[in-house]
Amino acid sequence: MRKYLEVLRITVRSHTVYVYDIAFNSLFMAVVMFAFLQLWRATYGGTGQRMLGGFAFSDMVWYLVMTETIVMSMPALASRIDQEIKTGDIAYSLARPYSYLGFQYAAFLGEAAVRMPVNYLVGASVAWLGTRTFPVPGWHLLGQALAIWLGVTLFFLNRLVMGLIAFWTEETSGFQLIYDRAMWILGGLLLPVELFPGPLRGVAEVLPFRYAINGPARLFVRFDVRYFLELLEYQGVWLAVLGLAAHLLYRAGMRRVTLNGG
Q1: What is the pLDDT of residues 119-154, one digit of tens each?
Q2: Bridge partner list, 51
Q3: 51-52 and 55-56 as β-strands: parallel, antiparallel, unpaired?
């Protein structure tokens, strides 16, 4: 465990050196949030409704702050694994005295830990200027943090599975493009799952995407103990399923590396 904590610490330090680059890149977050702010202000004004799907205008804006923060902060893990396999650099990683999957997870968390606060601060600034509201942390802050961490872990496993497919295809960019777009739409990045039409909502609720994006963001806006426990249950199920899938793909991929000599 000390090895992976050290990997996480080193990753945080290495990305902190480039915090100004991260801050510059996060300006896109400001543009996105400004656009959403205007869109939803017009939507609520045009419908004459104070609540849509259980979200007030300010709730919707802060919900989008969190969904955009989560998605925009996630490292491009699948592309890195893809590149390692194509170039053969994975042979060096496998020779090191640690679990390859454990290393990737620690590095993923370290990079996300630097990117998320920066993106959140930028998005929150725009949201506060537009709504003059701010979610006040309470006793439930630890529950929110736990849900977000598990959601980030689900994101990691999703991208890990996509990356490990490169053992068979070498090029995964096409799969990644389709998978990421499906995850953003069905995960509730642009629109809360609660506002989806019936059939589409039914599909979203049986996939893991919602529990990586929509669930943590909804808890951030309005904490509910019952929903929190339900979310943890579904997150736990999908963590087990995707964790097993990643493990089996990795083991099968290692057999191909041995057979092909790298």
Answers
A1: 999 999 999 998 888 887 677 888 999 999 999 999
A2: 56
A3: antiparallel
